[in-house]
């Protein structure tokens, strides 16, 4: 390593530390005043009692929703900054069971039908289980949450290769407009307004960073008729 490369490496370490400290301050210390705003709003509602104007109560409700969303975004930012430092335990997981567990955790799956295709030599793998679960849950949640039809079809396909698993999540929803598909992996970006679909817009950014950390690949392609296809490769080692 040359002297110039060594200096750049040292500066990168310093910048990374400063970034992590900044993220911690933003995502941790700001939570207290945000919660105070929500609490004060609730106290004012209670003081007004039954005589409160409906429009005023609606505005209080919107204020609390905005505060909650901001807190969720701060939590997501903190999670993104800690991808390579938290939940790094290796343990054995069963892939079909892990998929089913993620589906059970979804809170908006009532009108969704899931279809599974597994081509596996072994269902079990020793890996960063929490990280794989995070990616799977995020993609399944997006497939259901952003769906625009009454009946929602979600397809899960897992193929085992020599060195990795190729996992594909497909839906028959609205898809992603061609002009914004390059933005979907950016932190906090959402195709729909956050007032239309409640989401922080951080799931794909966190998933992308996790997959990159483990040495995998992640891509989006539009489905043939409509919908989205998210494919990622998860290394066995």
Core attributes:
237 residues; alpha+beta; 2 domains; two-stranded antiparallel sheet; 6 helices; 7 strands; globular
In short:
This protein has 237 residues and is of the alpha+beta class. It has helices at 3-29, 31-48, 54-81, 95-105, 129-145, 203-214, and strands at 90-94, 112-119, 124-128, 152-160, 164-171, 218-222, 228-235.
Describe the structure.
It catalyses: ATP + protein L-histidine = ADP + protein N-phospho-L-histidine. It is an enzyme of class 2 (transferase). This is histidine kinase. GO terms for molecular function: kinase activity. The chain has 237 residues and is α+β, with helices and mostly antiparallel strands. It has helices at 3-29, 31-48, 54-81, 95-105, 129-145, 203-214; strands spanning 90-94, 112-119, 124-128, 152-160, 164-171, 218-222, 228-235. Strands 2-4-5-7-6 form a five-stranded mixed sheet.
CATH architect. name of the largest domain: 2-Layer Sandwich
Beta-strand content bin: 15-25%
Strand order of the largest sheet: 2-4-5-7-6
SSE arrangement, N to C: HHHEHEEHEEHEE
Sheet with most strands: 5 strands, mixed
CATH class category of the largest domain:
Alpha Beta
How many β-strand runs?
7
Oligomer kind: single chain
CATH topology of the largest domain: Heat Shock Protein 90
Q: What is the share of helical residues?
A: 40-55%
| Whole-angstrom Rg | 21 Å
Structural class: alpha+beta
Morphology: globular
State the separation between the terminal residues, measured CA to CA.
Answer: 28 Å
Overall tally of domains: 2
